Amino acid sequence: MKLNCIAIDDEPLALSKLEGFVSKVPELSILRTFDNAVEALGWLKENKVDLIFLDIQMEQFTGIQFLETAGADSRVILTTAYDQYALKGFDLNVTDYLLKPFPFHRFLQAVNKVMDYYAKKDKSLLPDSGKDSFIFVKTEYRLERIDIKDILYIEGMKDYLRIICSNKKIMTLQSFSKLEDSLPASKFCRVHKSYIVAIDKIQSVERGVILIADQRIPISSTYKEIFFSKIRQ
Fold first, then answer.
1. If you average pLDDT over residues 126-153, what whole number do you get?
2. How many CA atoms lie within 13 A of 218 on its CB side?
3. What residue numbers bound the domain in which 11 lies?
4. Are 110 and 153 in a shared domain?
């Protein structure tokens, strides 16, 4: 996997350091560097990148203003000397927050998070030719068959999962990750730490909330981009 990236920072030394770090990671390719966010905004209208390294405190146009304006699908790693913007940054769905001066190993940790995101996204878009049309889950003292086409959504409830189907509801102790792996990724999507939804059963999506069978299901920032990339397919 090769990720194209850009860096935005009004400090030449900071840009030089980032370029040096990027050159040490074979999976990264830096396309451009910018000393102001306005120029980067214009460039992104005609170009697409996988990852943006973004400073916050810049003259004329701050990194936060850039995030609120850009609307890009790129992953973002904030690079700043100020820690008071961390919460705001994560509200805007950044992948990581690097406090200057950051060492290479911390830079690499942030990049690995981005790599993991794209790896999961690519996997979720693969065809599901090997998946069965049904699954078995343990409930009480029996194994119960569930036809995948009947599943509406799955809800995590502390130690249990509640599988809501068009014709029944089932409680099981099976783990979220194990159940998710048994479902075809093109038809189901994790949208919250407590919810998996059947994409073809969605009635509507509005203001970060999914409606399925009159049930309102929230979309968390962690899963938002993968979810919307699936429903655009």
1. 81
2. 7
3. 3-124
4. no
